[in-house]
């Protein structure tokens, strides 16, 4: 493949590239938002019971080990889901379960117990301790899990093309079938740009949310 071939493909398929990129981005965004609404509260609840935490995290790890193509195939076989976005969204939300719950659970659990006891001694309620101490102090780990989830979801979303999603994964799958290198490179390159772009944006947001001293301690 030459640079001219690549640029020619981009020029001839601009509208399709924009359409697939938009579909890919909205699928990732929807999956991440739904996952945050579901799994972050679950992760916080699990910090109250180590027994239930072990069970749920074990289930999450099992789901995470299922190959993505197999997961999509299973969901397509269920009448309610079938081909298309429902199956893709549900699968991506399931895959996000492990990194999100794990990061929230570990982030809260890694907070110094002495700090919590001191807060209780000052008369702080459980809810206030959670909001003002546990979540803020656990934010470096929690946010790291969030960033991993976003990048992972961006990549796995490409596999959804095999169940009817018209996203960037279609360039890769059809490019393989046609031995069309510019098509494959276009899909892979844009997916990479989206993943890197989202992670960069989240990195900037993390600097606003997580205090500098806590970032250094976590990175160290």
Automatic annotation (TrEMBL):
The chain crosses the membrane at residues 25-46, 58-81, 87-105, 133-163, 183-205. GO terms for biological process: glycine betaine transport; transmembrane transport. The keyword Glycoprotein does not apply. The keyword Cell membrane does not apply. It is a multi-pass membrane protein. Gene3D superfamilies: MetI-like. One of its GO terms (cellular component) is plasma membrane. Its main location: membrane. Pfam families: BPD_transp_1 (PF00528). PROSITE patterns: ABC_TM1. CDD domains: TM_PBP2. Residues 21-202 form the ABC transmembrane type-1 domain. It is found in: Cell membrane; Membrane. Keywords: Membrane, Transmembrane, Transmembrane helix, Transport. Belongs to the binding-protein-dependent transport system permease family. PANTHER family: GLYCINE BETAINE/L-PROLINE TRANSPORT SYSTEM PERMEASE PROTEIN PROW, OSMOPROTECTANT IMPORT PERMEASE PROTEIN OSMW. This is ABC transporter permease. It comes from Desulfosporosinus fructosivorans.
């Amino acid at each position: 493949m030459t640079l001219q071939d690549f640029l020619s493909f981009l020029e001839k398929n601009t509208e399709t590239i924009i359409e697939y990129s938009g579909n890919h981005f909205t699928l990732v965004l929807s999956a991440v938002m739904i996952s945050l609404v579901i799994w972050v509260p679950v992760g916080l609840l699990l910090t109250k019971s180590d027994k239930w935490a072990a069970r749920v995290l074990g289930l999450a790890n099992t789901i995470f080990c299922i190959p993505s193509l197999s997961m999509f195939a299973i969901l397509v076989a269920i009448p309610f889901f079938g081909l298309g976005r429902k199956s893709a969204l549900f699968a991506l939300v399931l895959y996000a379960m492990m990194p999100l719950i794990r990061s929230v659970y570990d982030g809260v659990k890694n907070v110094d117990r002495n700090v919590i006891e001191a807060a209780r001694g000052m008369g702080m309620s459980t809810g206030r301790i959670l909001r003002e101490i546990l979540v803020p102090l656990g934010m470096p780990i929690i946010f790291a899990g969030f960033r991993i989830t976003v990048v992972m979801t961006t990549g796995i979303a490409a596999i959804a093309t095999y169940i009817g999603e018209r996203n960037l994964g279609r360039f890769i799958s059809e490019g393989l079938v046609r031995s069309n290198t510019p098509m494959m490179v276009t899909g892979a390159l844009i997916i990479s740009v989206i993943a890197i772009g989202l992670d960069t944006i989240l990195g900037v947001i993390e600097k606003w949310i997580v205090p500098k001293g806590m970032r250094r301690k976590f990175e160290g």
